[in-house]
Amino acid sequence: CTAKTVRQDRRFPDDFIFGTATASYQIEGGWEADGKGENIWDYMTHNKPEVIKDMTNGDIAADTYNNYKRDVEMMRELGLDAYRFSLSWARLLPDGFTNNVNEAGVTFYNNYIDEMIKYNIQPMVTLYHWDLPQKLQELGGFVNPLFTDWFEDYARLAFERFGDRVKFWITFNEPREICYEGYGAATKAPILNATAVGTYLCAKNLVIAHAKAYHAYVKDFKPNQNGQCGITISVNWFGPATDSEEDHIMAELRRQAEWGLYAEPIFSQQGGFPKELSERVAEKSAKQGYASSRMPSFTDEERDLVRGSFDFFGVNHYTAFLASAAKEHKTYYPVPSLYDDSDSSTYTPDDWPKSASGWLKLAPNSIFDAFTFLRNKYGDIDFYVTENGWSTSPTAGLIDDDRVRYYRAALNSLLDAREAGVNIKGYMAWSLMDNFEWMEGITERFGLYEVDFEDPARSRTPRKSAFVYKHIIKNRYIDSDYKPESLTMTID
Ligand code: GBH
């Protein structure tokens, strides 16, 4: 056998931050424990259980509410530098507003955070990962312009209570999924299906809410707490299927519709919504008989408030799609809607390996493509991969070689991007453990640890990928020949 050479230049630096990510509704359970209020996922799954593929819900989920010490033990087993999780707004503020603080909820997060700090694991907190208090939804949620103030008040409470220990804040997880899937389509709570205008109203209010929270942090908390505040946007790669001009234009329009809508107002020099997409929406709105564009504009003051409101850019990246003007790839979208406005269709090649999720395939070097593009567009800023991962079926078990292949490929692509000069400072694998996968219930599993949902204790068992990830974290390079000797986990 030949001696293996480890390319030292392919190492992750010692200060590179390796972690895993989760979200409150997907793991916590305790849906009405100790004074927690109802959120839009509680409301939707209880009132319309049929919208979830297997009719399950997050009432118990992985029961982190009662298992948080085991979660932190798993973080220690993996040797994580950091752990990204989200706060449940309704657990802290049952009615959404700060007049009524649920101290039991504060205590739960204090315990979780303290347990991480005790073992030198850096907590990275997402303020909002999709579980809006139902009371605020009844007032219009993200399409009420006052949402921006409600969110700032909630953010301030979180900074006040947890900011002595939490130094990394993400305002929102995935604006596209909140605004397009929740308001524009019917694929996430509150399943509003307001295709024509919902997405755009939400997008505007969301970026302003983000900016208000960011400025509150910078002005009133950062001077003492010294942390950072940013946002996480889902940036899958959308490249042209061929080198034709049509495909290039289509890919650009698709990128603007998928993530430019939220990234451009915050990260671009000029601020505001993406130019070509805005023009199309205005044109189409006029033709469709609207008195004004379905996409709202920003006042100068709003534009200035939002642009530059970040310390870092968090990216959730999973896969890629090809934009194609060819007839056989044409998708017909509802009129009017975001994707109809963007005049774009996409597909993925049949030979890209498939996961258990319809939308998720292993695309070649897509982290490199996405991040070099972002760096060229928005400059030399700090990036974090805040989610990246692979799903398997519930019966696939512990030997998850396809997940191992995916993580190795993704981390290789990340190293390529770093070598090309993109400042990616950390990587959070999705997910620490199996959890409630939204509309898919528990039919798709993303965990490095398997969770037994039949077991009232929700026991957690490491998969093969957990050992491989642990080995990468410890050695700071990707050894593609590494095989765990056994699946017995220890804390090093
Ligand atoms: C992330 O979203 C979420 O932040 C996280 O909560 C989630 O568990 C994780 O990914 C895994 O899914 O079925 O064609 O309607 C990733 C972006 C957008 C991917 C919505 C799935 C559904 C596409 N997600 N998409 S489709």
Pick out its properties.
492 residues, eight-stranded parallel barrel, three-stranded mixed beta sheet, 13% strand, binds ligand GBH, Glyco_hydro_1
Descriptive overview:
The mean pLDDT is 97. The chain is α/β, with parallel strands linked by helices. The two termini are 30 Å apart. Strand 10, helix 16 and strand 11 (424-430) form a beta-alpha-beta unit. The chain has helices spanning 24-27, 40-47, 64-78, 89-92, 103-118, 134-137, 147-162, 175-184, 198-220, 222-225, 245-267, 275-287, 300-306, 338-341, 366-378, 401-419, 464-475, and strands spanning 17-21, 82-86, 122-128, 168-173, 228-234, 237-240, 313-316, 320-323, 346-347, 383-387, 424-430, 449-451, 460-462. The protein contains 17 helices and 13 strands. The chain binds ligand GBH. Ligand GBH binds next to helix 8.
SS element count, helices? 17
The kinds of small molecule bound in this structure are: ligand GBH
Termini separation:
30 Å
Query: Taking all residues together, what is the mean pLDDT?
Result: 97
Percentage of helical residues? 25-40%
The biggest beta sheet is recorded as: 8 strands, parallel, barrel
Taken as a percent bin, the fraction of beta residues is 5-15%
**Which residue ranges are poorly predicted, with pLDDT under 50 across at least 5 consecutive positions?**
none
Shape verdict: globular
Query: How does the helix and strand content classify structurally?
Result: alpha/beta
Strand order of the largest sheet: 1-2-3-4-5-7-10-11
According to DSSP, the number of beta strands is: 13
Question: H/E element string?
Answer: EHHHEHHEHHEHHHEEHHHEEHEHEHEEEH
Rg value: 22 Å
